[in-house]
Amino acid sequence: MPLSGNALENALEQLTAAELIFRRGVVPDATYVFKHALVRDAAYESLLKSRRQDIHADLVDALEADGQVAPELIAHHATQAGLNEKAIELWKKAGSAAMARPAYEEAISHFNFALDLIVQLEDRKAWRERELELLVQLAQVLMAKRGYGSEAPTKVFERAAQMIDSTKNMELRVAIYYGMWIGPYMRADLRTCLALSTEFIDEVDPLDDAIPRLIAHRMRAATLIALGRPTEALRDLDISLKLYEENDDPDFANRFAQEPGVQIKVYQLLGLWMTGYADQALALAAEATDKSRKLAHANTMCYAGLHHGVLAMWCRDYALLKRINDEVLSIAEEHEMSLWCTYFGLGDAIVKIRTGSKAALEGFQEALDKYQSAGFRLWMSFYLVQQAEELLDLGQTSDANKILQRISKLIEATGERWAETELFRVKGKILLAQSNLEGAESSFHHSIDVARRHGARILELRAATNLAQLWVDRGEKTKAYHLLQPIYEWFTEGFETADLKDARMVLGSICR
Fold first, then answer.
1. Which long-range contacts (CB under 8 A, 24 or more apart) does 287-296 make?
2. 94 and which of 72, 73, 257, 394 could share a cystine (Cβ 3.0–4.6 Å)?
3. How far apart are the C-alpha atoms of 369 and 182, rounded to whole Å?
4. Is position 488 within any domain?
């Protein structure tokens, strides 16, 4: 039976004298600890299971009354007390708190504890909704920690997809649909992604619920950007942004893998840049990055930083790329987020290549190999174009040409055409370096045609600048002027970016 008063004090003194426990402080405010964990475990195991559970239940009550105790500690005692339903809620609360800090490994552990307990419940069907919530949260943490589309979150989403018909909660359904889309997206199976996202839009657009609609349209927009269809993507993003602004929620970052407003903005900036609005794109990139910093949500910060860095690469602003990349790489390394580390490793290598580091080319290739070995192909064509142009600048035309052949195969396999214009432009530069002027001219023309078909005004200008320079060098200044001047005159902004400066310089050489 329980001891109290003098009997308890005497028993504690005997244990202290026997050096089985240590006392800290002065009675009656003293605390006692076991001398060794083995002694503690032996004492614990000597109790009947029912008695142990009673003690843990008492601890749950005491800790909850305190109000300042971490939920995972209470969850542990609730689990040991056999209070499974209470423990599930506490583990979920602990996981959510860890996810927000972020402490991803802790969150993964806490959510798994809760899911293991749900499996043990007699009336598991009554807990289907809670199980789905936990699966979605677990998958979102795994995406941040292990990488989008990687095996771990994919398996969790597949498990959730088997149960999706058991809920009418549209937010959960949205998260599961997203999980079904993100795997093919990361593998650059873009035709599947377009079909999935369009089907999803058809299902949710008739609904009054704004959240699934803004997510669905954003998913299709991301797919369209990769397919090289920025104008269509921007229409979807306009819909998403309007729905977001009407339904902004301060807890968005903790309910989704990234804060949806930042997600929308980073694809808008890519679409705006491609369609010729560089200043708006750069302003939006800075806005998304600033918002992610204020949220202090690690995954959102990395997400914004990645797309800001991609824009810097497109703009050939390597100082901006280094500044953004250094910031987010440290965040990714701190939280051991493997996919983000790989992405930012690629950005870091690009910066170092620009300084003339030959070792950086090897680092770039290693990062690409690591990325592809994980089963990812998204944006591979974009990164390979960067690699090919760097190799060309170093005079390695044969190696650059091999990269272009690889890009061509990737584009046909995946449908990822947002770098297709650059494929033909760089091909033209290689042919020019090989003194094949006719072949270079044909490739530059092809690049311009593809850019026009995609509505990629900035890439049209870039290819036209290369072709105009070829004609100027050949003495055909009038021909060069009539090609380049109308394209340049279309632009209303971005005049301090590298592409417009290059075009202006070529036009200036014509007019001299």
1. 288/262, 289/324, 291/259, 291/261, 291/262, 291/265, 292/259, 292/262, 295/253, 295/259, 295/262
2. 72
3. 21
4. yes
Which one-letter amino acid corresponds to residue 205?
Answer: D
372: left (phi over 0), alpha (psi -120 to 50) or beta: alpha
Q: Which two tokens stand for residue 464?
A: 């036209």
Would residue 389 count as lying in a domain?
no
Cα-based angle 134, 296, 242 (whole degrees, multiple of 5): 75
Here the tokens at position 128 are 């289907």
C-alpha triplet 508, 509, 512: angle, nearest 5°: 85
Q: Tell me, what DSSP letter sits at residue 403?
A: H
* Number of domains forming the structure of the chain: 1
Question: Could you report the average pLDDT of every consecutive run of 10 residues in the chain (512 residues)?
Answer: 55 57 64 60 55 70 79 83 85 88 88 89 82 88 76 84 81 84 90 94 90 93 96 97 82 71 95 97 96 90 95 94 94 89 91 83 88 88 92 91 94 92 97 96 98 96 98 96 97 97 96 74
Asked if residue 120 lies in contact with residue 84, where contact means CB atoms within 8 angstroms, the answer is yes
| Residue 33 included in any domain | no
Instruction: Give the structural domain span for 441.
Output: 419-512
Q: What is the CATH number of the domain that holds 486?
A: 1.25.40
Single pTM value for the model: 0.78
Assigned domain for 503 exists: yes
Residue in the structure block whose two tokens are 């310089």? 505
